[in-house]
Specification:
By secondary structure, the chain is an alpha/beta fold. It has a single domain, classed as 3-Layer(aba) Sandwich (Rossmann fold), CATH 3.40.50.2300. It is built from six helices and seven strands, in the order E-H-E-H-E-H-H-E-H-E-H-E-E. The strands form two sheets. It has a five-stranded parallel β-sheet with strand order 2-1-3-4-5, sandwiched between helices. It is elongated, with a radius of gyration of 22 Å. The termini are far apart.
């Protein structure tokens, strides 16, 4: 199944939103993207219960419903049907540290609101058709945090080369500062 040929109509997506208007907008955007089978959970606890009893292809979680515990629980609750499913955090204007925190918790990706149908289509297709490998460590369980594959790199591995000494030019005379 290639990335371009994945039919989003066949996906079963869980939408976790605490605010009804955000849920309505995200549901419409998912519909435009082609997703038809959408289930809604109003908070993180309801979403975890659903994830323990049903199989989903992906989860979109709004930051208001996520709190700090949803991403962690969605990866580490023992009764989950699929702890490796793609989980997207949907935020309004996330900062770099927010994205890094979400990544470290185990979210697959962070989407910025307002999110377009084209972006959702691209991210869902990529996450479902070509999922990143999962890392299981003592303090982390989630998709590999390195997003870019570097297999296409054809140059020499710089980490194996010996550092070379570089000759720096001596600093020239300083010009006086006029007031």
């Amino acid at each position: 199944m290639t990335n371009e040929r994945l039919d989003l109509k066949s996906l079963h997506v869980l939408l976790v939103c605490a605010k009804p208007h955000v849920a309505q907008v995200l549901r419409q955007v998912l519909g435009i993207a082609g997703v038809q089978d959408i289930e809604l959970a109003g908070d993180a606890q309801a979403a975890i219960k659903l994830l323990c009893h049903q199989c989903f292809d992906a989860v979109l979680c709004d930051e208001a419903a996520a709190g700090g515990d949803f991403g962690y629980a969605a990866r580490r609750t023992p009764d989950l049907v699929d702890p490796m499913l793609p989980i997207f955090l949907v935020c309004a204007g996330p900062r770099r540290r927010d994205v890094e925190t979400a990544r470290d918790i185990g979210y697959t990706d962070v989407l910025t609101r307002p999110v377009s149908a084209k972006t959702i289509m691209r991210k869902l297709r990529l996450a479902v058709a070509k999922p990143r490998p999962f890392i299981a460590a003592s303090d982390f369980f989630g998709p590999d945090r390195r997003t870019g594959a570097r297999s296409h790199f054809r140059g020499s591995d710089r980490r194996k080369r010996q550092p070379r000494k570089v000759k720096l030019a001596a600093p020239g005379p300083r010009e006086p500062v006029s007031a």
